[in-house]
Design brief:
binds adenosine-5-diphosphoribose, elongated, alpha/beta, 230 residues, four-stranded antiparallel sheet
Amino acid sequence: MKRKLVISTGAGMSAESGISTFRDAGGLWENYPVMQVASADGFRANPALVHEFYNQRRKDLLKAAPNAGHYGLVDLEKDFDVYVITQNVDDLHERAGSKNVLHLHGELMKVRALDNELKTFTLTPANIETSPDTRIEGHAVRPHIVFFQEAVPNFEPATELAAEADIFVIIGTSLAVYPAAALLHYVRKGVPVYYIDPNPAQVPADVHVIKAPATRGIEILARELRAQNS
Ligand code: APR
């Protein structure tokens, strides 16, 4: 029986693919007014600006590819029952081949109908730009992103995954945003927790911190977990 390996990733997971993080030096929130481009109020006030912000991030994503860290997580599927919970809106985990990916903050390559939030559409590289005038199947659309000030509908299933984990791993997040940062507290007592980050945030003393970038840290983790399996 394969052990259940639940992995929670943040922007640092995609940093080595050339995708900006949010709170590092030069990060996205240094260059954009977060509440104007990524909040519910901001979208109501100026939808065109918000559409444009996500158009730009889609263009950046099309130029990016999964990095060795993404592929390292796919490789772990050989020996573990792997589930990825990600705060990232990019599709790099999926493009690398991860089978179980749960997005907490939405998906950049998707938009959804303004008049029916359950109706989503997947954009293709040929049509990645949207505006308030875009119509898909007659629907006006918005980015399929959880804006600040909005609920995180996938948090409950994420807590269930964390509670079922035999091993829990956190990669590349500043643990600054809730409720994602609270997932750690749903892990059963005694289950080992690892945290891979070159500049780790404060975490409880029993968390195994691997102070390294994702690509290197995942190599170290894989070796340690496989040694425990043998
Ligand atoms: N490998 C691993 N981690 C890295 C790397 C790397 N190469 N480079 C940077 N990091 C780490 C940073 O040290 C930091 O801890 O990635 C983390 C990035 O933190 P944030 O920029 O705050 O990103 P994240 O934690 O994912 O933000 C959470 O905030 O703005 C919202 O919705 C947005 O999902 C996002 C959420």
